[in-house]
Design goal:
The complex is a heterodimer of chains A (586) and B (319). With 586 residues, chain A is an alpha+beta fold. Helix content of chain A is 26%, strand content 20%. Chain A has helices spanning 2-21, 32-36, 66-75, 129-140, 194-197, 207-210, 256-265, 279-288, 339-347, 351-358, 387-396, 428-442, 455-458, 467-470, 513-522, 528-544; strands at residues 47-51, 80-82, 88-90, 110-114, 155-162, 165-170, 219-225, 229-234, 247-252, 270-274, 293-308, 400-401, 407-411, 414-417, 419-425, 447-453, 475-480, 548-561, 564-565, 583-584. In chain A, the strands form 6 sheets. A 6-stranded mixed sheet of chain A has the order 10-18-11-17-15-16, with helices on both faces. A 4-stranded mixed sheet of chain A has the order 1-9-8-7. In chain A, helix 15 runs antiparallel to helix 16 (528-544). The radius of gyration of chain A is 26 Å and the shape is globular. Chain B is mostly helical. Chain B contains 12 helices and no strands. The radius of gyration of chain B is 24 Å and the shape is flat. The chains are: A alpha+beta (586), B mainly alpha (319). At the A-B interface, helix 1, strand 9, helix 7, helix 13 and strand 17 of A face helix 2, helix 4, helix 6, helix 7 and helix 11 of B.
């Protein structure tokens, strides 16, 4: 038996160590120069951040993933970025172009950016206006699989009269010009190095795009062990100098309970992506550890909303040429076409109680679609919870309670029941919320029937029969947010997904000529002050017509230990917008 | 024998064809890769259409499947829809860590099962047998996430709090190439895998041994004066282990697929997580690539097990 034991132990050890030798090794260390010249005052133990998902890659131009946005803005930066006050502030540029500083021409078609002098990539090569021009060329090269060319395709040419000046000439007005060449999640404005990538196409498969070997931001990628961790070290050539922390590790920890345990043991210092349902656990932990572990809940740029299916196959809206537009391939519930019914549904849901109970009161009930930003219409107040008023509205709309307590009435010549299918994803918080809403609406005589689907099915494309795209819902719930630029095409008649136009994003299936006009006006000026007035009017119109139910402002939930000095986050750019100034207590 | 193997290989190819076709359909209907872009601000309808065309999603499903299969036959599993990296590269990055974890676990599981199974059988209905049976069933019936999180809470979090040496949660950054760190980080995940698997194997072996011990040839062996140890190990165990070999043979390919829950809880970068992370996004090439690998392994290991039978049991002839 002894011999068998020895053999077994030997086999296990040999197998383990043998396989370990072929375990994923770090991708080529790119930051040798940076690592060797990193500041010496660094703490012995690097800051470690746990992420529940691994970024697809570290270039925001080729990935729409938030994690890519968060990490890439540490490495590849743009001309501007959004700060903790949600203002666009200069990054590689000296200032933000405006009409007053001459950066924006009177017709809005020419934008001039000035780069900071003597900028360098982390490899020491100069970073100049030719990199701006090159980045635009990469965006527009059809051989490159960028995920969007929005804005970049409106630029007809870029002049680079000197190393620090880039003059952008637009073929038509693009009011969202601030979002191009500016970096942040939901944006892809990072500059690319011409000296490394010139002449290449099909860049999405280039190793540099997956893992940049040099940087323009405060950190350089030192190693990336697939599925496990990413190590970044300070870039001494960053325009502000080397960051305070010499090294930051990102560990991929898919399970939130593990992340919490690792936070307790000190294996990780910060977790930036807890879900809202973890708020209570973290709050209790903060109390039980006497503040050694902290919870922070910041308002995010998005919000959870319920939307009504307003689709109709009998649109009467006509475009300038007289052609009927805005037909959906399906009809939403007849009753929801009545604004009184929609308002009643809003007033029949106690959103504040939902926030207080399911979200520990750590977030707020918004009135509109643009919370927490310059573009918010701050004069509006969320509809109150008023079941009595809701009942009156339903009475006015002609719906009275039947024998089963559910209201019904005549609509479109038919007796219809106020019974609605509610479609949303299978996230637990959405399930809990739907249960609460069901009870609340029942009290005003409305039946609410929740159905939960995987997000891949719920958000599936029109051709794949996705519920939102094909309008297979009465009421639906998901998160949305319009940022950094407030304009969006989600309410246009032309973007209702149909058989002929399957890629549309108007999941409300709404076509309203007034709304359409206002969105057109919003894009008729490059002046933010002018646009702001139009967006205020849009929000008021949507509010008055109760086009959707804003449920709550989505919260970003952070857990971090006492060692990490966690500065304010940016609503638009998230927690990693200013890693240059991050520090730890010694 | 060679004709048999050839026939089985041809059958395997047909089976694999059906498996990949079914997997392709299931993946297609379970998640739409375009869902990633459904509510993405800044994107236009033209952007979405360009992505659909580039990924070939505008093609009819049979065309998409045949294109994928043609490339797969040439050894090219394609590139991920989202990270744009070759699928083979993604698999090669995760496979070694999965094999380290799963092979170590499997060897220990077999070793522990043999010991427990034999003791249980030899000491049938004794206190030892009852204790082993009870703990086996407790382990078998508990969900692995419960065992994993429970062990982590006690052996990592509480031990750290009490100032004792504590095991890692898996949330730390460590060097895979360091054998000591590797062994240290494997303690918790391997223990969990042993706890949930060992019950099945040991119970199977126990009943198999008991069945064999009642056969005539064992009585003959005892009658001719052999020691009980020789009866057990040289005569009974060899026959009793046959069914276990079948189970192990079928389990071996599953090793390649990894252990999703264990890998997720202990932040182990293996195949299970690779599959799950990309399946959620509807990344067909990665999902189908990993499924092809594991299903091929199942099919071919089944053939190997059948052939191995003839070597272990002379009564079985494949002709």
């Amino acid at each position: 038996m002894k011999r068998i034991t020895y053999v077994l132990v030997s086999v296990i050890l040999l197998a383990s160590f043998g396989l370990a030798s072929c375990a994923p090794t770090a991708a080529p260390a790119a930051a040798t120069a940076a690592a060797t010249t990193a500041p010496t005052a660094a703490p012995a133990k690097p800051l470690t951040i746990a992420l529940s998902q691994e970024p697809d890659q570290l270039n925001p131009m080729f990935s729409s993933m938030s994690y890519t946005g968060w990490l890439s803005q540490m490495v590849l930066v743009g001309l501007g970025r959004w700060d903790d006050k949600n203002n666009l502030v200069p990054e590689l540029a000296t200032d933000i172009p405006s009409t007053s500083n001459g950066g924006v021409s009177a017709d809005g078609l020419t934008i001039t950016w000035h780069l900071r002098p003597n900028l360098k990539w982390s490899d020491g090569e100069p970073l100049t206006s030719t990199d701006v021009k090159f980045t635009w060329q990469v965006e527009n090269d059809k051989g490159n699989a960028v995920y969007t060319r929005a804005g970049y395709d409106k630029i007809s040419s870029i002049d680079t009269p000197d190393a620090t000046t880039a003059v952008l000439h637009f073929s038509s007005l693009y009011p969202g010009w601030q979002t191009i060449f500016s970096q942040g999640p939901n944006n892809q404005g990072a500059l690319l190095p011409e000296h490394l990538l010139k002449g290449k196409t099909g860049l999405e498969k280039d190793p540099f795009i997956h893992q940049p070997t040099i940087a323009s931001g405060p950190y350089v990628v030192k190693e990336w062990v697939a599925g496990d961790h990413i190590t970044m070290v300070a870039n001494p050539n960053y325009w502000q100098g080397a960051a305070k922390l010499a090294q930051i590790n990102f560990k991929i920890v898919p399970n939130p309970e593990t992340a919490l345990a690792a936070l307790k043991t000190g294996d990780v210092d910060m977790v930036p992506d807890f879900s809202e349902s973890d708020i209570k656990t973290l709050s209790d932990l903060e109390t039980s550890t006497n503040g050694k572990i902290h919870l922070r809940v910041d308002a995010g740029p998005e919000f959870e909303h319920y939307l009504f299916n307003l689709g109709t196959t009998a649109s009467t809206v006509k475009d300038a040429s007289g052609k009927v537009i805005g037909n959906s391939d399906q009809n939403g519930p007849c009753a929801l076409q009545d604004v009184n019914v929609r308002k009643a549904l809003i007033m029949g849901i106690d959103r504040q109680t939902i926030v207080d109970t399911l979200l520990a009161g750590k977030t707020t009930v918004p009135a509109n679609l643009w919370p927490n930003s310059y573009w918010t219409n701050t004069s509006m107040k969320a509809y109150p919870y008023d079941p009595d008023q809701a009942k009156k509205l339903l009475d006015t709309a002609g719906y009275t309670a039947g024998s089963d307590g559910i209201r019904h009435g005549m609509c479109g010549g038919q007796d219809v029941k106020l019974s609605f299918n509610f479609e949303t994803t299978d996230k637990q918080l959405r399930k809990d919320m739907a249960v609460a809403v069901k009870d609340m609406l029942l009290k005003i005589g409305v039946e609410f029937k929740p159905n939960h689907l995987p997000s891949g099915t719920f958000f599936g494309s029109y051709t794949d029969g996705g519920d939102m795209a094909t309008g297979k819902y009465d009421i639906a719930g998901y998160t949305t947010g319009f940022y950094p630029d407030p304009w969006n095409d989600n309410f246009l008649c032309s973007t209702i997904p149909t058989k002929d136009s399957p890629g549309g994003s108007n999941y409300y299936h709404v076509c309203d000529p007034k709304l359409e006009d206002m969105f057109t006006q919003a894009n008729a000026s490059a002046d933010p002050a002018v646009r702001k007035k139009v967006f205020d009017a849009i929000q008021q119109y949507q509010y008055d017509n109760a086009l959707f139910i804003p449920m709550y402002v989505r919260a970003n939930v952070y857990g971090y230990n006492d060692r990490f000095v966690f500065p304010p986050t940016s609503v638009i750019s998230g927690w990693s917008w200013d890693t240059f100034n991050w520090s730890v207590k010694q | 024998m060679s004709a048999y193997i050839l026939r089985r290989l041809v059958q395997a190819l047909v089976v694999l064809f059906f498996i990949t076709a079914v997997c392709f359909l299931l993946t297609h209907y379970s998640s739409d890769p375009m869902a990633q872009y459904a509510n993405k601000q800044g994107m236009t309808e033209a952007d979405r259409q360009a992505i659909r065309l580039r990924l070939g999603l505008d093609q009819p499903l049979p065309v998409q499947y045949v294109s994928w299969l043609t490339l797969a036959f040439q050894g090219n599993l394609g590139n991920s829809f989202f990270s744009h990296q070759p699928v083979l590269l993604l698999i090669s990055q995760r496979l070694p860590m999965t094999l380290v974890l799963m092979i170590t676990s499997e060897i220990l599981i077999i070793a522990v099962s043999l010991v427990l199974g034999i003791i249980s059988a030899v000491k049938q209905y004794s206190l030892t047998d009852n204790i082993i049976t009870s703990f086996s069933f407790i382990g078998f019936s508990m969900p692995i996430f419960f065992i994993a999180l429970g062990l982590m809470q006690v052996l990592a979090v509480q031990f750290k709090e009490w100032g004792w040496p504590y095991l890692p949660t898996g949330g730390d950054v460590w060097d895979f190439g360091d054998p000591l760190a590797l062994a240290w980080h494997m303690v918790l995940p391997v223990t969990c895998l042993i706890i949930i698997t060992v019950a099945g194997y040991s119970r199977f072996l126990r009943s198999s041994i008991l069945e064999v011990l009642g056969l005539d040839y064992i009585r003959t062996a005892r009658a001719k004066g052999l020691e009980e140890r020789a009866v057990l190990f040289k005569h009974a165990l060899r026959n009793a282990a046959l069914p276990l070999i079948t189970i192990i043979g079928l389990d071996i390919p599953a090793l390649l697929g990894g252990a999703l829950v264990t890998e997720s809880i202990f932040a182990w970068p293996g195949m299970g997580r690779l599959f799950w992370e990309y399946a959620q996004k509807g990344d067909f090439p990665v999902v189908n690539g990993t499924l092809l690998l594991t299903s091929s392994a199942v099919v071919f290991f089944t053939i190997i097990v059948d052939v191995a039978y003839t070597l272990i049991d002379p009564r079985i002839r494949l002709n």
